Hints:
The chain is mainly alpha-helical. The protein has one domain (24-130). Helix content is 48%, strand content 5%. A two-stranded parallel sheet has the order 1-2. The chain is globular, with a radius of gyration of 18 Å. The protein starts with a helix and ends with a helix.
Amino acid sequence: MYFNRSHKHFGPVFQNRFKSILIENDSYFLQLSQYIYLNPLKAGLTADPLNYKYSSIREALGREPLRFLDRDIVRLVGKTESSKKAYENFVVEGISKDLSNMEKLFENEEAILGSARFTTSAQKKYHRKQK
């Protein structure tokens, strides 16, 4: 309220800042994480996703202690050095991929990432609850 009054702003200060996405399974989650970790490259903030200081990718790869990431998220990367290297390679491979389908998730209010069957089913359930 103080910020709004002092800056003549109306409504939530952080409106539309965060996005919730329904994800079918871990493989789709990994695809989304690839897109997120590559955003600083797309924005021209860094040339290497591992060097972007505001990224949690180093935590995911076990190079820094966990401060932001949940252990359940890190388990998807794996505990072995080979699984961590495979995940790192997966993220880097995304640099040359067209990830525009991921960008679309952030355009819609109803964001669902998964197979066509999962997406259709989730949309039907969402619309039933809206009635």
